[in-house]
Amino acid sequence: MSDQLSRRLALLGDAANLSLLTQCLHGIERECLRVDERGKLALTPHPRALGSALTNPQITTDYSESLLEFITPTSTSVEKTLDELGEIHRFASGKLDGEYLWSPSMPCELPDEETIPIARYGSSHIGRLKYVYRKGLALRYGKTMQCIAGIHYNFSLPEGIWELLREDEGSEKSARDFQSHRYIAMIRNFRRYSWLLMYLFGASPALDAGFLRGRPHGLESFDAHTLYLPYATSLRMSDLGYQNNAQAGLTPCYNDLDSYIDSLRRAVSTPYAPYEKVGTKVDGEWVQLNTNILQIENEYYSSIRPKRVTYTGERPIQALMARGVQYVEARCLDINPFLPLGIDVTEARFLDAFLLYCALSDSPPLGGCECGSATSNFLKVVKEGRRPGLKLERGGQQIEMKDWAGALLDAIAPIIDLLDRANGSSLHAQSLAEQRAKVTDADLTPSAKVLAEMRERGESFEAFALRYSRQHAETLHSEPLSAEEQARFEGMASQSLAEQADLEKQPEGDFDTFVAAYQASILGLISV
C-alpha cells in the first residue's frame, strides 16, 4: 500500500470522518429483454400499463421496443437501492401479459434484423429525435448488437470526502475542479483493474448460435444451438459486442477532464465518410441524426463514464463542462441470470469497495503502453479469464491473473474494514470472502456456473435462460407489492402518459429545424 493511500484511509478512518463513508450514493439501471412464453423476442409494443417510455423516470426502454430499462432513484444505502430495483421488477413483471423478463445479458433467439422493433417515444420532437437516434444505431451497428443487455452501476462519493482530501493535500484547485480531477483519476484506475470485475461477476460465457448472423467468429459449439468459449467470463464485453470502425480511432483520454470532453465533442462534430455516403435521410425519411463519428455523446461505448446530472435540454458534455464530474457510471456488469434482479446486495457491496479503492489509490496518468495493456488485460479476461495459469501484463511484466487478483483483494481489504466499521456490520467482509473464494476456485464464478448447469442438464443457452426467466417470474409474482407501492407505480405510469400527451399537444415547429438546433448546441462548443 502506498503512503498516500495509507494516509487517506487513516483520514477517513478517523472517528470524526468515518460516517462520510455511509453517504456514498448508489443507483442501478438494469436492462432486460421482454420475451414471449416460448423465449422468443416479444414483438408487442411497450406495455401501456408501464407508462410512457419517454417520461416515466423508472421504467423506460433502451434500444428496442422490447428492451426494458429499470432505473432506481439514488440512495445512500445499497440495500434500499436493491429493494427499489426489486419493486420496479415486481410491478413490471405483473404487467407483462404472458411475457417474461429475459434472465441473461445475451439475447434470446432473435428474428431477422428488419423485424427487431426500434423503441418508439411518440410524436413530440424529443420523442422523434430519440427514435431517429436509434435508427442511426441500427444503420451503424446493426439491430442485433443493440439487443445485448447489462447493468449500469452509478456511484458517487460525498462531496465531504473530496473536500476533506482537498484540504489534507493542500490542493490549490477549486472544489469543483479537484472533484473532477479525482473522478477522472478514479476512472483511470477502473480501466487498470476492471478486468477483476469481469472475472468475479462475468456471466455470459455462451450465446445463441444465431446471434452472430453467420459472421466469422472464434467461438466453439456447445450444442447445435449454442456457441461459447470454455474459459470465457463475459462474451458480452468481448469484441463480439459493440464494435464500429468509426469508433476504432476514438480513444478518449482519461488523463484530465478537458481532454476527455474535447475528444467526445470532436467525435460528435467530425464527419465520417461511410456515414456521409448514406446521408441523414433516405427517400425523405430520417435514418440518422447526422453523419458524424458519433451522433451524440452517449453513442460512445465505454466500460465507465464520468457523469453529471443534466438540466432540461442540456447535453451531457455541456453539463460536464459547466459543472464538472458528479458521479461515475460503471457499464461493464453482466446480468447474473441466476438472480431475479440480475444483481444482488453482495455484489453491490463489493462494487462499492472496489470503486472506493479506485478513487483513493494512486492513479498516475495512463501512458500509451499502459492504455494498451489495460485494454488487452480486459479482453483476455472476458474471453479466457478462467483459463488455468492465465497471465496478464502489469508494469510491463507478465503476472498470473490469480496472483494479481489476490493482491488486489488484499489491497481492497482495508477499505472493506472501513465500510464495515462505518456501517456497524461485517457484511462487506462477507462479500470480500465470497470474492476470495472465486479467485481460489474458478468454478464458483457465475460464468463457470452457467456452463456447468447447462452441461449437467443438457440445456442449450436458450433453454437455460428461459427456465430462469420463468423461475424469476414466479419469484417476483410470489412477492407482490404492497397496495401502497402498487398505487405509487400505477400513479407514476399514469402521470408519465399524461406528460407525454401534454408534450405532444404543444406546438413545436419544424422537426428538421429542431434537429439542426440540437446539433448546433454541440457545434458551439467546438474551438475553432
UniProtKB/TrEMBL annotation:
GO function term, MF aspect, one: metal ion binding
GO BP terms in the entry: glutathione biosynthetic process
Every Glutamate--cysteine ligase domain range: 10-381
Pfam families: Glu_cys_ligase
Biological pathway: Sulfur metabolism; glutathione biosynthesis; glutathione from L-cysteine and L-glutamate: step 1/2
Region (Disordered): 476-504
InterPro entries with a match to the protein in the record: Gln_synth/guanido_kin_cat_dom, Glu_cys_ligase, Glut_cys_ligase
EC number of the protein: 6.3.2.2
Recorded catalytic activity of this chain's protein: L-cysteine + L-glutamate + ATP = gamma-L-glutamyl-L-cysteine + ADP + phosphate + H(+)
UniProt entry keywords in alphabetical sequence: ATP-binding, Glutathione biosynthesis, Ligase, Nucleotide-binding
Keyword presence, Zinc: no
GO cellular component: cytosol
Family: Belongs to the glutamate--cysteine ligase type 1 family. Type 1 subfamily.
NCBIfam families for this protein: glu_cys_ligase
PANTHER family tied to this protein: GLUTAMATE--CYSTEINE LIGASE (PTHR38761)
HAMAP family named in the record: Glu_cys_ligase (MF_00578)
UniProt-recorded name of the protein: Glutamate--cysteine ligase
Organism phylogeny: Bacteria, Pseudomonadati, Pseudomonadota, Gammaproteobacteria, Pseudomonadales
